[in-house]
Structures are given as C-alpha cells and as structure tokens.
Amino acid sequence: MPASAGMTDYYLGTPVFSNIPSKTFRQSSALAIPIVDNDPSVRLSDFNRTISIARRERAVAEHSKMTAAEAKQKAEVIRKVILDTYKNEVKPSPFFTDLRAGTLSQARLQGWIRNWYSFALEVNTGMATVYHQFVGFFKRHPELENRIAQKIGEEFTTPAIGGHARMLPILGKALGVSNDEMIECELIPEARGLVDFFVRSWIDIPLAECFAVHMEEEIFGFISRDFRQSLPKYGVSNEDMKYFRVHEEADLDEDHGGTNQAILEVALQEGYGNERAGWPLEYCGKIAVQMIGNFYDGVYRRYA
After folding, report:
1. Which site from 32, 87, 140, 291 is most exposed, i.e. has the minimal number of CB atoms within 10 Å?
2. Do 159 and 291 lie in a common domain?
3. Do 248 and 114 sit in the same domain of this protein?
C-alpha cells in the first residue's frame, strides 16, 4: 500500500510513520525501540529476525516446563539447600548459641527486636502485593489463589486485626523496649539489607524466584521455636512471647508454610522456571537464609 502523509503503518505493534524519508528516524538500540526505515528489504530482515527470536524464546519456555514429579523433585532440592544452610550457618551462629544457653545479653535482645520490628511489618505488607503482581497466574489456579489469600489474611488478622506484627510491642515491652523505639529505629545495615532484600523479593522478581526465596519461611518456624524455648530463661512469660508461638505453628504447618513450595511446583510445571544469570533457584533459597544469618550476626556484633 503506498504511503501517504499522515498515514500510520504498524511494525510489529509499533507505529511507523510512512511519510518520514528513509534513514531519517533512528533511535538508540539501548532504548529497545525498533529502527524505522522505509526500505522494504530492511524491514523484512528485521521482521524475520524478530520472528526467529520469538520462536527461540517459545522453545525455551516450552523446554523448561516440568512434569509434576520433576517440579516436586526440584522444589525438594531447594528445600534441602535451605534447611542445610540453616543447620550449618544460622543455627550454630553466636547469637543463637548464646540465646539457647541463656547467656545472650539484654542489649542484644533489645537490639534484635528494635530492628526486627521493621522487617516483620514491611515484609508482611510487601507480601500483600504478590497477589496482585501474579494475579493472572492465580486466576488460573484457584486452589493456589485460595492458599495465598488465606496466607495473606492470616498475616494481618491472626491473632487479631493488625496480625503478627501487632504482637511485637508486647514482646518489646517484656524486653524493655518501647513501641516508639521500634517504630523509629534507624536500622543497622544488616537489618536494612534484610528488609530491602525480602521486600524486593515480593514485588520485583519473577514468579519462580519469588517463591524459591520464600520457601525459607520454614526456618522461621525453627527460629521461633528456639526463641520460645529460650526466652523464659530471660524472664519472658508465655503470654509475652505469643509472637513466637504463632509463628512456630504457622511456619511449620503444611497449609501456611508449605504454600510457597506448592506455588513454586506449579510454576515450574507451567514453564516459569527459566533462571536469570546469577539467580538459579537453589541460590535463591540459599541466599535468603544467608541474609537472615547476616542479620543475626550483625545484631550480635553491633550490640554488646
């Protein structure tokens, strides 16, 4: 069709103004905007190259789809990496060794809760966005949609409105830390890194990576058990440490804590498992646990 002034052609979904002379409108490839050129041979070459790329990408996506058995095996490998990293790097760390022995200083306990409060609040609110971010995926899987909705709901309504984070001021008071001290705390670098890593993992990474990272939630159940069993040595009552009782029960429960693995397995079956450079899914699980360990090491080192 002959071009005429004011006519707009369409080149793979991008407007092309046919009345502009050849080679007069070019943009940097860094902007990911197609080069406009009226030479038919150039445009045909670009078209063929784009189709070739699309076919290769589709082939990669199709190749990456796993069977249910393969997806479960992959997820179990990630879970083992997570549990092994916790067992080898976090559980025997100085913070938890002293906590279990009843010798952790009051300054370190207070430093922990001042910095942990922001993590608990910001990560839970970050999690609330994941439903919207991946709503297309969840619409196709109502059984997983039910689980993520229930999980988010529990975080904000158990044991009452405000959810898990509202139990921290009670624990803080028992440890000698006021609510204002927690709210206004200027986080140590390790705590800021922990918060930002986990918030971003909810709002700004691909589906499979997101839930590979959050499979680490299971270790919060073990961490909560350590706190629950140890804090009576520091004069904290069972009622004051309800935060840990709730987390121990929830994070070690298949319906709540197991939701992340269930979502990951279905994502892998649907071809969402393509891994970015430097972000294999096993690494996602491992670095999540190591970030937690780094936080506790920072608390131990920075508070006497």
Report:
1. 32
2. yes
3. yes
Residues 20 and 169 reside in one and the same domain: no
Based on the domain organization, do 42 and 108 belong to the same domain?
A: no
Quote the pTM value: 0.78
Q: Do 41 and 82 reside in the same domain of the chain?
A: no
Task: Check whether residue 176 and residue 297 sit in a common domain.
Answer: yes
Torsion angle of alpha carbons 155, 160, 162, 168, nearest 10°?
-90
Cβ atoms of residues 71 and 266 within 8 Å: yes
* pLDDT, tens only, 234-269: 999 999 999 998 888 878 877 666 899 999 999 999
Cβ partners under 8 Å of residue 255, min gap 6: 147, 150
Residues whose CB is less than 8 angstroms from the CB of residue 258 and which lie 6 or more positions away in sequence, other chains included: none
Q: Could you give the number of structural domains in the chain?
A: 2
- Please state whether the peptide bond connecting residue 21 to the residue before it is cis, i.e. omega within 30 degrees of 0: no
Contacts for 135 with CB less than 8 Å, ≥ 6 apart: none
What does each C-alpha distance from 235 to 89, 199, 296 come to in angstroms? 28, 33, 21
Q: 118 is in which domain, residue-wise?
A: 66-302
The alpha-helical segments, DSSP class H, found in the chain are 40-64, 68-85, 94-101, 106-127, 130-133, 135-140, 142-157, 168-174, 179-183, 189-203, 207-213, 217-230, 242-251, 259-269, 281-302
Structure token pair of residue 186 = 């200027």
Instruction: State yes or no: pLDDT of 99 exceeds 90.
Output: yes
Name the nearest CA neighbour of 24 among 38, 34, 3.
38
The C-alpha atoms of residue 179 and residue 173 are separated, in whole angstroms, by 8
